[in-house]
Protein 1
Amino acid sequence: MSAPPTPEDVGAMYDALTDLLSQALGDNIHAGYWQDAQDTSNVAQAADRLTGLVGQRLRAGAGQHVLDVGCGSGRPAVRIAAASGSRVTGITVSGHQLSLARARPETSAADGMLEFRQADAMQLPFPDASFDAAYAIESLLHMSDQRTALAHLARVLRPGGRLVVADLCLSAVPHGADADAVAAASQVFQVSSIASPDEYRTLLEEAGFKVEECSDIAPHVRRTYAVVARTMRQAGESIGGELAVQLDGAAASVERFGTLDCIGYALVTAVRP
């Protein structure tokens, strides 16, 4: 069994893949949410809808401070700050993502309402009770010590602060070829572990949170994997050579991963008492 990825490993992966993922996902780096099979939303609209679902559950308002754990290139933070009137601080382990987030015109125009820093969620560099709310969209799965990360989040949230997690989950334990497919995709994207909904609930409760909601929304996000796989193949075809072969292999892993019944997508809301 290989060692779990370090923050440096995850940062290097996102340094390499952020531009491609952003191209695939409409300036986002997380899954989209489609209402049903008839929903004709494009991937950017669907990904923004997922951001909106997270933002609604935060219940943040003007004058409050929100932490974005794994901010990507900054689009979710921009949207949540604009919708809520709150101040958002985003952190990432990727230097390239940090540069992209800071270079957004919305960041410079936000008059201090948006800030982005390079930081590790397992060692949050913020004082106790610094934030009114926090969210983590597809970032916990990269962390080798999710317990420590959640303990830090509980520490930096004020009493009554809300935490929203949107992330992959396991709806069943994979076996055989399915387990191999999960391992292959995890290697591509530097995934440390994928928890089940019950494990998310337990981890949050152990960190001192009270869980209000824990839903598996996998049917609404499943289209995302095919979109990412298609963009990887198109990028490989335009580049050619050995990189094209690598991207085609990665695309096959993502595509197969997206068909697995054992792969869910957790939307979790918790409160720090």
Note: The two ends are 38 Å apart (CA to CA).
Protein 2
Amino acid sequence: MSSQSILEMSERARAVFRLVVENYIDNGAPVGSRTLSRLASLNLSSASIRNVMQDLEEAGLLAAPHVSAGRIPTEIGLRLFVDGMMQVAEPSAEERAEIERRSANAGPIEEAISSVTATLSGLSACAGIVLVPKQEPVLRQLGFVPLSRRQAMAVLVGQDGSVENRVVDLPSGVTPSLLIEIGNYVSERLAGLTLGEAQERMTAEISAGRAAIDRAAGELIARGLAVWSRDGARPVLIVRGQARLLDDDATAHLERVRQLLDELEGKEEIARLLDLARDASATRIFIGSENKLFALSGSSVIAAPYRGGDGRVVGVVGVIGPTRLNYARIVPMVDFTAQTLSRLMA
């Protein structure tokens, strides 16, 4: 069903559907017709409510987890509610103040981002997640250790003292003595540059014929730099507050929570999911099996991009929790957190 289906629903059906969803989000339990009939705002008999709920179930918006139980919204129903019926509430003054306070009191930028994400986790009672832009390493030295005629170990040393190794294929014509010459060239000509800058200079010098080494050596340097340049640009995923997923309601859904915790261990998969929110102009909501990563645990993700000083998106912040999230409260909270991080990065 699309949001247009809301207009096609009768006023009675919309009222019943809204109350079922809101009661389920508040209490986490199936909602019965007797419960709804006690609400003065509805002014319908239990029999009338049962008939409406049956129609909503046949439309795929509600489901009965047990034969004698009440109804709960399906994922399709939750999507319809979120897109077309939900009325969001602004974060409270206390919530805004707490997020801003944690951003102001933290130390380095990475610590501040982690602290703000932990605060979002606490306020939302979900696991907080954030994609942090990784600073591209500054080159101090790039050396090659021959392993065979066709391969060598590339050793990159950063200005911060970090050391990383990769096995690279050797172009034809590269000898052990040339590998030493390459190391000297890098130390003299490329040290102090980021990997991207070193790549650009290497390419420009070879193209202009100014490189003091031959094209095969230049190709090898570019190949080694490219590996770390790609890795260096890859964002880092931080997850905070996994324990908050183990609330009082979790005992009834231990398998779902276990599956969700397993999914949180697969950080690369979640990072790819959050990448989908990078191009969004506003907060994005992924409900349950709409994303195959959470098809088993039935979890929801609310995420929003945040920007750097130049206005470009540099990361994504959000929460992960059960589909029974208070979307109306948490969506604006995630949005405000993204705005806070954007000011922090400016």
Note: The radius of gyration is 27 Å.
Protein 3
Amino acid sequence: MGRLAQTEGLTDVQREILATVRDFVDKEILPVATELEHRDAYPTEIVEGLKELGLFGLMIPEEYGGLGESLLTYALTVEEIARGWMSVSGIVNTHFIVAYMLKQHGTQEQKDHFLPKMATGEIRAAFSMSEPGLGSDVSAISSKGVRDGDDYLLTGQKMWLTNGGSASLVAVLCRTDEGHPEGTAPHRSMTTFLVEKEPGFGEVRPGLTIPGKIDKMGYKGVDTTEMIMDGLRIPAGRVLGGESGRGFSHMMDGVEVGRVNVAARGCGVARRAFELGVAYAQQRHTFGKPIAQHQAIQFKLAEMATKVEAAHAMMVNAARKKDSGQRNDLEAGMAKYLASEYCKEVVEDAFRIHGGYGFSKEYEIERLYREAPMLLIGEGTAEIQKMIIGRRLLEEYRIQG
């Protein structure tokens, strides 16, 4: 296993879960990941294996058929999965953001209806906030939900849905202006809707179209899509929490979980890149000795390992903060920022160690080199994380008088 990225204070149950996941990654994901990624093929057999392990219910309470584990357990699990193939960790991420939002904010009827099936993986979820012209400005959301009797009619276009095609449940953030006078802060007139649909592409229910997969540089296998709503009729009972106007806070709570997840993914990809780099450095010979014996390469390995260890520590801290019930936007922002930036740097250093062979699709590092950039923008860019961190620091260190 190696010395890096160890976590102190885990329970026997947590260690058992992580050992099981690590074994699954080594046997079922790593041997096929690169071939599936090059074909942009959805990892159906891997997903079925995750369902059998109960991982779709990892954080769902036991009363709903889940394992009732902590965010820390989930984050460490994601780190292991991302070490095998980051796309697989993306399949579980949006599912767990929605499960967490339901657990924290859903009505009892919504919890009873969705969580048991989500725990088994029968229902898999997607999370939709972004729009084509939106970027990081969530307050500029233009998709609308208009009240029509006991229903809402949703209209608008959404973008960058991970699991958009394979999911049968999508948590969608829309603007709902009823009861909110002109001049109301934008975030107070947003609502999260729980949209049920058939998996697949095309018109998946009346008024809802999933056009198809977006062709991406990396992060392949997992389906990333648009979503077009044109008079999509949703019962008022599918407003998350049963009350309009609270969607922004619901989504931001979920995004904090997502940022810990992205940090965990960065840790997993970086750890795998280090493993590949340190192994190749001992196998490749130049000037009569393994390149690992050259001081320049040892310096590079030392920097890579330090970054892996630092990112892991910050990710664990952010997860534990959230588990304690405390506000963790500062810690989650720091962890996401550091882990994604360090992941990019560690992957690039491993790529450099491989030399020309790193440019060949026969070597795994080529895949990691294309996957790492997604983490720089997923769940908020580095610039957004810095804004969050800066504002929170000013709150904490505000001078008096």
Note: The mean pLDDT is 94.
